[in-house]
Amino acid sequence: DQQVKQNSPSLSVQEGRISILNCDYTNSMFDYFLWYKKYPAEGPTFLISISSIKDKNEDGRFTVFLNKSAKHLSLHIVPSQPGDSAVYFCAASETSGTYKYIFGTGTRLKVLA
Amino acid sequence: NAGVTQTPKFRVLKTGQSMTLLCAQDMNHEYMYWYRQDPGMGLRLIHYSVGEGTTAKGEVPDGYNVSRLKKQNFLLGLESAAPSQTSVYFCASTDPMAGRNEQFFGPGTRLTVL
User: Fold this and answer.
1) How many A-B residue pairs are in contact by the CB < 8 A criterion?
2) Which residue ranges in chain B fall short of pLDDT 70?
3) Which of B48, B62, B75, B79 has the most crowded CB, counting CB atoms within 10 A?
4) Considering only CA atoms, which of B54, B106, B74, B105 is closest in space to residue A91?
5) Average pLDDT of chain A, as a whole number
C-alpha cells in the first residue's frame, strides 16, 4: 500500500511556462513534506519543504502548496527552465523522532526549449 | 565539506557473494539512512540510524545488515547477494537538532547482482 503517490510518471512543459507536479498521500499523521530533484547518475537534492502548519511555501521559482483536507501537495515551478528537467520526488514524514521519509515514485519533468 | 560520500560507485557481484557499501558524512549529522531505488518504485528505506551505535529496520530490511560504529560512517552489508538486490543504493543523513528536516544524499552506488 503506497502511502505517497505521484500519479504522473512524466510531464513535458514548454520553457517559460508553469510546471505543476502533484503528490497525494494517505497517512493523516504526516506533518512534514519535502520535494527533491534528481538528475541521472546523481543523488537527490533537496528543493523545498513545507510543514503541515502552513499551506504554502515559496523559494524563488519554486512554490509548494499543501491541501491537508485533500491530502494533496503540489510543486509549482515558474518559469520553467531547461535545467529543471529532472525527476522530482515528493516525500512525507511524521516528525516524531526518527525523521523517516516515505518517498513517492517520482515524476520525470522535461522542459522543452 | 564533501557532504555525503559513498564507496564504491559501481559494483558487480555474483549471486551468493558478499559486500559492504560505505557511507561517510562530514556534517556531524546524527541521523543516517540507507535507501534503494528501483525503476517505478521511488526510494525505499532499508535501514536507518539515529546515532552512533544504533540501527533500526526500515521498509525493506531483509537481506541487509548495517552498522554505525562511528558517527560519521554508516555501513550497509549484503551477506549473500541475490539478483533481487540489483539496485541503486543511496545513503542520506540529517540533523533535526539543527532545525532542518531535509536529508542530504550521497551520489549513489549502482549494484548489479548476476
Assistant:
1) 61
2) 100
3) B48
4) B105
5) 94
**A105 and B41 in contact by Cβ < 8 A?**
yes
> What residues have CB less than 8 Å from B53, skipping those under 6 apart?
B68, B69
Cβ-based neighbour number of residue B19 at 10 Å? 16
Residue A99 has pLDDT above 80, yes or no: no
User: In terms of Cα–Cα distance, which of A79, A76, A69 is closest to A111?
Assistant: A79
Task: Give yes or no for B95 touching A (CB within 8 A).
Answer: no
| Collapsed DSSP state (helix, strand, coil) of residue A7 | coil
Q: What is the pLDDT of residue A97?
A: 67
| Nearest-by-CA chain A residue for B95 | A99
- Residues B66 and A38: their CA atoms lie apart, in Å, by 25
CA nearest to A47, candidates A88, A103, A95 = A88
Listed by number, the residues of chain B in 7-46 with a beta carbon closer than 8 Å to a beta carbon of chain A are 31, 33, 35, 40-45
Mean pLDDT of A11-20: 97
Residue type, A70: A
